[in-house]
Amino acid sequence: MVDWDGPLGEAYERATTYLAGLPERRVGPRATAAELRQALGGELPTGPSEPRDVIAHLAKGVEDGLLPSGSGRFFGFVFGGATPASLAADWLTTTWDQNAGLYAASPAAAVVEEVTADWLVELFGLPRGTSVGFVTGAQMANFTGLAAARHEVLRRVGWDVERDGLIGAPPIRVLAGAERHDTIDRALRFLGLGTSSIVPIAVDDQGRMRADALHQALQEGGPQIVCAQAGNVNTGAFDPVKTICDLAHDKGAWVHVDGAFGIWATVSPTLRSLVDGIDRADSWATDAHKWLNVPYDSGLVFCAHPEPHRAAMSIRAAYLIQDENGERDSLDYNPEFSRRARGFAVYAAIRALGRSGIAEIVDRCHAMARRFADTLAANGVAVLNDVVLNQVLVRFDDDDELTRRVVRAVQDEGTCWMSGTTWQGKAAMRISVSNWTTDESDIDRSAAAVLQCRDQVQRA
């Protein structure tokens, strides 16, 4: 008989020990790359090993190289954590090992994604009938949404891009804010449109697209896609989506919204005004592994027009089994073929939290970001942004080198972890509050550590 209890028992014990230790664990890796190679490397194994021993060896070897991004004091990269229900569902997802590409390959995965998709559309207040794809993250969500956009704006001028490609096609102009996220540029490279297709639109001091600049740029006409942003990755600021949709649709342009974390503001009654008019866009991208706090990887793409969504993504082959009753095949909505059944974890997270629980996480993270900013500002640290959501951007003594040294000192000290960035040509510390466990004690402890590191660096 196969011994499942040994390796799975070892994994369970080590997993629960790791999770229980997160609240007090040093927030940062404790080993160098050389030390990790020493612990994990060696010659290619020539024969089999006991599975439980392999798991124990792996867990011990990586322990000091883990970045505890599930900690309530981790404020880097807009990472979320993992709620208990979503983590447990993700474990079962691995155990069930379903290929979620086709309904025929896993009816359960297909139906769970269908149900979860409907919940998400309702949660975000998007148009009924909006199609949904479960992808790896906002990068592929942006790619997929822009692929649907590419299909539709070229179809309107009589060009079939899926059949004929882009050689000889009418050029597409992509109007995007000067402070857009880099995943937009990368998606356009993947789609063959290239970054030269981008028309940068001027932004204000918070990174919001200026409607007057967009209006002027739209006058050139032709096939056009407008990329709006719900949540600037540095400041958290929101483009004026309602106005953008009015201007763009008047010129026949498609509006895609990069809402990697910001679209979750729609769930909060107190923050929803930030995304006024977002339901009028044509496609949207977001991450479930941010504010829904499900395990990596989990991204979502939405399209108000299912036909171009399917046209850009779907595939037919003689050996594939498309259900005769028209059940949902996920490969019609994302760029993958074989794929993990990501819907199980998203389903579990939504069912466990409900609308009110998700709103509470978003509101609390916003409040904690404000608390962090207020504490630092009260102690002489310059806060560079309006804290409208979960992002805090700070700078020390208006000095690039000092700011970078404080960021490194905080990372080395280990109480909390946040990254550095460059904002409008100046170095800054970027604090992202996205974890479902973060509370006042995490903020106060972290702010004190930042101030202590600043003082030490200044004295040095």
Automatic annotation (TrEMBL):
The keyword Transferase applies. The modification N6-(pyridoxal phosphate)lysine is found at K290. This is Aspartate aminotransferase family protein. Pfam families: Pyridoxal_deC. Its cofactor is pyridoxal 5'-phosphate. It comes from Kribbella capetownensis. GO terms for biological process: carboxylic acid metabolic process. InterPro entries: Aromatic_deC (IPR010977), PyrdxlP-dep_de-COase (IPR002129), PyrdxlP-dep_Trfase (IPR015424), PyrdxlP-dep_Trfase_major (IPR015421), PyrdxlP-dep_Trfase_small (IPR015422). GO terms for molecular function: aromatic-L-amino-acid decarboxylase activity; pyridoxal phosphate binding; transaminase activity. Keywords: Aminotransferase, Decarboxylase, Lyase, Pyridoxal phosphate, Transferase. Belongs to the group II decarboxylase family.
